[in-house]
Amino acid sequence: MSADVRPATAADVEAVLTVWAEARRGEARTPDSAQAVERLLERDPGALLVAEADGRVVGAVIAGWDGWRGNIYRLGVLPEYQRRGIAGQLVEAGHERLRGLGARRVTALVGGDEGVAHRLWRALGYRRDEFVHRFVRNL
Fold first, then answer.
1. Which of 6, 38, 67, 94 has the lowest CB atom count within 10 Å?
2. Please, what is the angle between helix 13-23 and helix 34-43, to 10°?
3. Helical axes 86-101 vs 115-123, angle rounded to 10°
């Protein structure tokens, strides 16, 4: 199945939150809110990409650029649309965006125990970085 991938708009906020809620795994720690999504749309237009199929938003991903490195995170596809290639379409659209901004390296944030997600990222050409560990702190 092919979906149409495009940058999200303010009209997509609730649909994106629905995708993330339904696709959310136990490893996800950061709470989602309409305010956070709206702030992202204002701060970095084009970073949030959505996939549309059957007249609705069925997937979303953030492809962020910090001026040095690309970061892909919050990849989610509605359960009934998973395993149809939509996640790959979203990631490829993220790659195109990041390449256009000058990125030469991309990091994907993936939960440590999410085996299905690990297989997806490997199938998309990513490898696990055994040398860098992520440290986090809530503010």
1. 67
2. 120
3. 60
CA 115, 53, 80, 34 torsion-angle sign: positive
If one counts the domains in the chain, the total is 1
Burial class (CB in 10 A: 0-12, 13-18, 19+), 55: exposed
pLDDT band at residue 114, thresholds of 50, 70 and 90?
low
Hey, what long-range contacts does 127-136 have (CB within 8 A, 24 or more apart)?
134/109
The domain that holds 13 is classified in CATH as: 3.40.630.30
The number of beta carbons lying within 10 Å of the beta carbon of residue 28 is: 16
Does 97 map to a domain? yes
pTM score, whole prediction? 0.91
Residues 9 and 1: their CA atoms lie apart, in Å, by 23
Determine the pLDDT at residue 29. Answer: 64
- Alpha-carbon distances, residue 134 vs 4, 110, 111, 131 (angstroms): 33, 11, 11, 10
